[in-house]
Specification:
Structural class: alpha+beta
CATH architecture of the largest domain: Ribbon
Largest sheet: 9 strands, mixed
Number of strands: 11
Strand content: 25-35%
Distance between the termini: 19 Å
Shape: elongated
């Protein structure tokens, strides 16, 4: 997975989003310190640096308000959710350089602050109403159980399948008679990326950068 935010980092990030949406400019380091009762400007700066390292913001350390919120659209109570065109073998599976853009979502639809999008390529899950071209929201914070639709990593490839166990064997089941199930062997480089918690289907071509750059992606 991408590196998880701490509780304080998540709160600071949401504060940055909401403050910027309300005021049209970012809070200063002193504003952030006052909001979270942090007296040390270095502590605030370190928090921002961590957010930058984890791929949520970009910083200009020479400016008091030198923060750029990646994917920010200006809507209050919303969060830019990243989507990825590639994944990385091993951990972390999601790297900032493989992120292809953002889709801004109302925060009420997000089960956790760790969600991300992948774009489906292929028809292996049409029996569960997931089609090629859909954007699937993945929640790595939810524990995957048999019967859940999951995003899984096999080497550097991602796939959307239904999780099942047959004895000690993990089986990724397709929902299309034309596609085969995948049995995971003990030596396979395999990992569960998360549980599918939403499916979003554009009915027209969007002109936003986040939709334009997602053509390549994952398999289904």
């Amino acid at each position: 997975m991408s590196e998880q935010l701490t509780r304080l980092e998540s709160s600071v990030y949401q504060y940055l989003l909401d403050f910027t949406a309300e005021h049209t400019y970012q809070p200063s380091i002193r504003d952030i310190g006052k909001q979270f009762e942090i007296k040390s400007t270095k502590t605030v700066s370190d928090l921002l640096q961590s957010l930058a390292r984890k791929g949520y913001i970009e910083r200009d350390p020479s400016r008091s308000r030198g923060v750029r919120l990646l994917g920010f659209s200006g809507a209050a109570q919303s969060t830019p959710v990243p989507f990825y065109g590639r994944i990385h073998a091993g951990e972390p599976a999601l790297l900032p350089e493989h992120r292809e853009g953002f889709i801004t979502m109302d925060r009420r639809f997000l089960p956790s602050d760790r969600v991300f999008f992948l774009k489906v390529k292929g028809e292996s899950m049409i029996g569960r109403a997931i089609e090629s071209g859909d954007f699937v929201m993945i929640d790595p914070a939810t524990t995957a159980r048999d019967g859940d639709i999951i995003a899984a990593r096999i080497g550097e490839e991602a796939t959307i399948k239904t999780l099942a166990h047959e004895g000690q064997t993990v089986v990724l089941k397709a929902a299309n008679p034309a596609d085969r199930d995948i049995s995971i062997g003990s030596r396979d480089d395999f990992g569960v990326l998360g549980v599918v918690c939403g499916v979003f289907r554009p009915f027209s071509v969007m002109n936003t950068q986040s939709m334009q750059t997602a053509a390549s992606g994952m398999i289904s």
